[in-house]
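Sequence design from tokenized structure. All designs in this work follow the same two-part layout: the structure record, then the generated sequence. An example of the structure record is given first.
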């Protein structure tokens, strides 16, 4: 098994003096269930709240990790975006229909498979928005759907011979010098009776998660090295689907749309985020050369902040840093 000590030396963040008035931001953190806030600008930490080294569960941020890593295989031809599930031999417990088997890898990446088979690791919200089985054809309808995301993990493992965790350690964590990530404890798979396709959860510190955001802010480059294939970071965060009040959706990334992202805040144009249930965000704001990481200790049952709470916090951050 790979460990981080096998692959790369940790590279601590530099810090910069911050002359912003962050009193409103800190007051909001204290008043809600924010457990960690980290703001990076210009590649340096300019503000933090809470323990930036604590490893929180990432929830659905895992999906953006996988999307980032798949670029290497798409470029090499190991994974074809236009391959169908039938081509790849992908099926599930209840059996996929002939129409469902025509879904493309691209459809899964954009949450447009039209496959509403039972899936594991779903939140109550995901279940509430799930469409009726066989109600839409592949590629015709966007629905945030864990079946797509988990099946992509199966496709990735099948194509590469690596677990999602091993690939992340080699392809992302090592090149960007993550300080805290440990392959032995911080990434795993979970299986489910209702579906053949496992989830691939992660735990990660906020300072390491900020590196992931910074990698995208730098167009997939780190330390002069092209870590992600040229153009793949930009391709991940194109607005392939309209996501209503949540903005837009790319390759397993959430995007602002005309300022729409979090309620009560006009989010700078071109911003995008990896998002996890309960209040986990890795928000990249190119207009301000900024990465904002927000975490909640969701190991505590019921602990979370709403999207409105995050919107209020973002508004305060953008006002302070203007």
């Amino acid at each position: 098994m790979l460990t981080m000590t096998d692959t790369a030396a940790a590279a601590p963040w530099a810090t910069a003096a911050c002359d912003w008035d962050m009193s409103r931001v800190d007051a909001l953190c204290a008043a809600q269930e924010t457990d960690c806030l980290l703001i990076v600008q210009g590649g340096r930490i300019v503000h933090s709240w809470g323990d930036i080294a604590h490893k929180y569960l990432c929830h659905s941020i895992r999906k953006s990790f996988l999307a980032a890593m798949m670029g290497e295989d798409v470029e090499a031809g190991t994974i074809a975006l236009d391959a169908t599930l039938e081509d790849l031999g992908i099926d599930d417990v209840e059996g996929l229909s002939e129409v469902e088997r025509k879904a493309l890898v691209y459809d899964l990446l954009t949450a447009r498979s039209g496959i509403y088979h039972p899936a594991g690791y779903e939140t109550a919200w995901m279940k509430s928005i799930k469409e009726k089985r066989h109600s839409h054809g592949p590629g015709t309808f966007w629905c945030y759907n864990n079946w797509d995301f988990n099946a992509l993990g199966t496709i990735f493992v099948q194509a590469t011979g690596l677990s999602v965790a091993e690939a992340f350690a080699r392809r992302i964590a090592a090149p960007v010098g993550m300080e805290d990530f440990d392959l032995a404890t911080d990434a795993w798979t979970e299986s489910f009776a209702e579906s053949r396709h496992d989830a691939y959860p992660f735990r990660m510190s906020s300072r390491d998660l900020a590196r992931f955001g910074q990698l995208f802010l730098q167009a997939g480059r780190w330390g002069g090295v092209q870590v992600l294939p040229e153009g793949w970071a930009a391709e991940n965060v194109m607005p392939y689907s309209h996501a209503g009040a949540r903005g837009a959706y790319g390759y397993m990334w959430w995007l602002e749309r005309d300022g729409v992202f979090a309620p009560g805040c006009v989010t700078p144009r071109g911003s995008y985020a990896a998002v996890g249930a309960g209040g986990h965000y890795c928000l990249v704001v190119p207009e301000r050369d900024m990465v904002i990481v927000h975490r909640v200790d969701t190991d505590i049952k019921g602990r979370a902040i709403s999207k409105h709470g995050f919107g209020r916090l973002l508004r305060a951050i953008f006002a302070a840093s203007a």
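The first helix runs from residue 4 to 7. We note this feature because it recurs in several other targets discussed in the main text.
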